[in-house]
Design brief:
333 residues, alpha/beta, Quinone Oxidoreductase, Chain A, domain 1, Rossmann fold, 2 domains, 7-stranded mixed sheet, 6-stranded parallel sheet, 10 helices, 26% helix, 27% strand, binds zinc ion, ER, Alcohol dehydrogenase/L-iditol 2-dehydrogenase, metal-binding, ADH-like_N, GroES-like_sf
């Protein structure tokens, strides 16, 4: 079957002879219909994030249809449309038992610690597949995972109804944070140097925080760019006593003095993915009851054969890129 692999640092290739997955007793086989691209995939491609082996199957934001279920799986059936929750916590370690599965000591992550989901068929632990209605637009379905990250960040921020929230960076994650802020009753403002991305943020309902009025600050700031200089800038824009949530990642240090932290009584909090099962359950329920349409943040759709081009262009196009796979619902024998 076909799979999109990293063959060497910065070289992505579609291979035609990747082995078929085998279905463990607690797993399901999913025919993948679409996979969104995000920053962590690009970090794997560039080599900033190392993976256990090459070639390596990329991707983690996947949806599709169940083809087969393992012998111990009673609550999933072939034909069901599902979104994959691509982080598989162990559910038995201390953090997992405390409900903080993002901090799992043995978390497996598709595309990072094990092969990714950008293949025609993948095996996934059944409990990490989430049924979604067939009627939902696939553009919205492909955004469920990154939207769950965004909603988690907004929840962690303690945003209250009517609060102004500065979102630093309007890449795909920043755009989804803007939607999550709106959904939570807040007012999102964005800072984004890329004009196309900024325009997209305004189109989905955010306001521009520029030009800046001297002295303007925000009770909640969510940093999504991962650029240390942007983080430093973000610190200056939090109101005294306010909260700064970091979602973007960089291994380069950002400066923050304890004088600033203490005198201005800031809360700075890092926010990593989501907890199982609450995160996905909440997002899917929210999509079922509100007209959020997260698919509005998508801009570029590529075919499977165009995957190398999709990865090469993903950091330049405004909005989120995704790859659509052909519907090959029968298992290759
Ligand atoms: Zn992602
Ligand atoms: Zn665990």
């Amino acid at each position: 079957m076909r799979a999109v692999t990293l063959v060497s640092p910065a070289t992505v290739a579609v291979v035609n002879d990747w082995p078929e997955p085998s279905c463990g007793p607690r797993e399901v086989i999913v025919a993948v219909h679409g996979v969104g691209l995000c920053g962590s995939d690009l970090a794997v491609v560039s080599g900033r994030r190392s993976v256990p082996a090459l070639p390596w199957v990329l991707g983690h934001e996947a949806f599709g249809v169940i083809l087969a279920v393992g012998g111990d799986v009673a609550d999933r059936r072939p034909g069901q449309r599902v979104v994959v929750e691509p982080n598989y916590p162990c559910l038995v370690c201390g953090p997992c038992r405390a409900g903080a599965t993002a901090g799992c000591e043995a978390r497996r992550a598709a595309g990072i610690s094990e092969h990714g989901l950008l293949a025609e068929r993948v095996a996934v632990p059944a409990r990490f597949t989430w049924p979604v209605p067939d009627s939902w637009d696939e553009a919205d379905v492909v955004c469920v995972e990154p939207l769950t990250v965004a909603v988690g960040a907004v929840q962690a921020s303690g945003l209250r109804n009517g609060d102004a929230c500065l979102v630093v960076g309007a890449g795909a994650q920043g755009l989804l944070v803007c939607l999550a802020v709106l959904q939570a009753g807040g007012v999102p403002y964005v800072i984004e140097p890329h004009e196309g991305r900024r325009a997209l943020a305004l189109r989905i309902g955010a306001r521009s925080a520029e030009p800046r009025k001297p002295g303007t600050t925000f009770p909640v700031v969510i940093e999504t760019s991962g650029v240390p200089e942007a983080f430093e800038d973000a610190v200056d824009l939090v109101s005294d006593g306010g909260r700064l949530i970091a979602v973007g990642l960089s291994s380069r240090p950002a400066r923050l003095s304890t004088f600033t932290l203490v005198q201005r009584r800031l809360t700075v909090r890092g926010c990593l993915i989501y907890d199982h099962p609450g995160g996905f359950a909440h997002t899917i329920a929210m999509l079922g009851s509100h007209d959020l349409r997260p698919g509005r943040v998508l801009r570029e759709r590529y075919e499977l054969a165009e995957a190398p081009e999709a990865f090469a262009q993903a950091s330049r196009v405004p909005g989120k890129s995704w790859i659509s796979l052909p519907r090959t619902e029968e298992m290759a024998s």
